């Protein structure tokens, strides 16, 4: 049984048209979108923030916190993808967060 477009959107699936529509939003606007009740808005925000802005320690912590609370599939996948783009410092933050919050993140890249 194939999911409908509305079901996929409800799970946070986005299209390139969705991304283009929000590509000119400021970082502040995108951070506000992370709090949206609309799942696809959260996915869009994560995708654009991770592609167009530096992955700072604060943004990594925000993504980790958001991932812990997120229930929808495609938003979780996008958060994991964004977190996998980090450097050695971000890997340390992920491990610290994991230890402190008893939280496991799939796809932690080990950087040697």
Question: Can you walk me through this structure?
Answer:
By secondary structure, the chain is mainly alpha-helical. The protein has one domain (5-101). The protein has seven helices and no strands. It has helices at 5-10, 16-22, 27-33, 39-52, 57-69, 73-84, 88-101. Helix 4 (39-52) packs parallel to helix 6 (73-84) and helix 5 packs across helix 7 (88-101). The longest helix is centred in the middle third of the chain and has 14 residues, at 39-52. The chain is globular. The model is unreliable at 102-112 (pLDDT under 50).
Q: What does this entry show, briefly?
A:
The chain is mainly alpha-helical and 112 residues long.
SSE blueprint:
Blueprint lengths: L4 H6 L5 H7 L4 H7 L5 H14 L4 H13 L3 H12 L3 H14 L11
Helix pairs in contact: 3-4, 4-6, 5-6, 5-7
SSE succession: HHHHHHH
Mean pLDDT: 85
Helix content: 55-70%
Number of strands: 0
Our Rg estimate from Cα atoms comes to: 14 Å
Distance between the termini: 43 Å
Q: What are the segments in which pLDDT stays under 50 over at least 5 consecutive residues?
A: 102-112
Major sheet: none
Strand residue content: under 5%
Total separate domains: 1
| DSSP summary: helix tally | 7
Label the structural class: mainly alpha
Apparent shape: globular
């Amino acid at each position: 049984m194939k999911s409908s477009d509305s079901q996929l959107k409800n799970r946070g699936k986005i299209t390139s048209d969705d991304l283009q529509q929000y590509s000119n939003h400021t970082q502040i606007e995108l951070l506000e979108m992370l709090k949206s009740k609309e799942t696809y808005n959260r996915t869009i925000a994560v995708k654009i923030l991770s592609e167009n802005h530096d992955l700072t320690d604060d943004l990594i912590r925000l993504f980790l916190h958001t991932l812990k609370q997120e229930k929808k599939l495609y938003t979780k996948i996008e958060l994991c993808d964004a977190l996998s783009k980090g450097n050695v410092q971000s890997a340390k933050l992920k491990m610290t967060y994991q230890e402190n919050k008893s939280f496991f993140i799939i796809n932690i890249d080990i950087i040697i």
